[in-house]
Design goal:
3 helices
């Protein structure tokens, strides 16, 4: 995670404010091109943020969030509404449920 992201998480956690920790992994861009590899990247990013907030202030409310999708390799942009997004979102729901 970037220094700025860590600072924001620490600041919110010090005040006990709830936060949405999310990943914006893009399959084929900032994450592996496979959906499984993208989910591993996503989960690691979100869990690292949750761990940081809990180490800062145990009990800080967190939401396991997602903005993960795939990258359109022609335009190098995030695709919204593609079938893979639905698959990733369903898988992220399962991952979030396993954290509880």
């Amino acid at each position: 995670m970037s220094e700025e992201t860590c600072e924001a998480i620490i600041t919110y956690a010090k005040h006990g404010l709830p936060m949405n920790i999310l990943s914006m992994a893009m399959a084929g861009g900032t994450a592996p091109v496979t959906l499984a590899g993208t989910l591993v990247t996503h989960n690691a990013e979100v869990l690292s943020g949750i761990v940081l907030s809990q180490l800062t202030n145990k009990g800080t409310p967190n939401v396991y969030g997602s903005s993960t999708t795939i990258m359109d390799l022609r335009s190098a942009s995030a695709t919204i509404g593609c079938p893979e997004l639905g698959m990733l979102s369903a898988d992220v729901c399962k991952l979030a449920g396993s954290v509880l």
